Amino acid sequence: QTSALCDLCRCRHKAHWSGHRSRLDRFKPFGDKSDYAFEELVAEIGACFLGAQVGVEPITDESAAYIDHWLKAMREDNKVIFKAAAKAQQAADFILDCAHNPTEAGFMIA
After folding, report:
1. DSSP labels for the chain?
2. 20 to 30 Å CA-CA from 78: which of 29, 69, 70, 100?
3. How crowded is the C-beta side of 84, counted as CA atoms within 13 Å?
């Protein structure tokens, strides 16, 4: 399980990495907790998507609890999970494309 956690952590960091303005330009200045929460949702869901693609089984109890925590921070938007999942899929697709066509030195998914 420790190895899977490390692999999922790398996937999560890659999901955050994809948001840079030179990549998917997802980052906006964090004006409040909901902006930060949204990025955390994207990264966690993206890590699950990436893990599924590369054969790293998500630890669903931990991922679900983490996602639930950030969803509670964003209660006013009942569509946020769908918005975050769409951005997470974009991130996963971008990262997988980079892995197949490396443009960054030393690029690894997990």
Report:
1. -HHHHHHHHHHHHHHHHTTSTTTT-------SHHHHHHHHHHHHHHHHHHHHHHT----HHHHHHHHHHHHHTTTT-TTHHHHHHHHHHHHHHHHHHHHHS--STT----
2. 29
3. 27
| Count of all residues that appear for the chain in the document | 110
> Tokens in use for 89?
């899929």
Mean pLDDT, the chain, whole residue set: 83
pTM: 0.82
Give the C-alpha separation, 78 to 96, whole Å. Answer: 29
And the tokens for 105? 């030195």
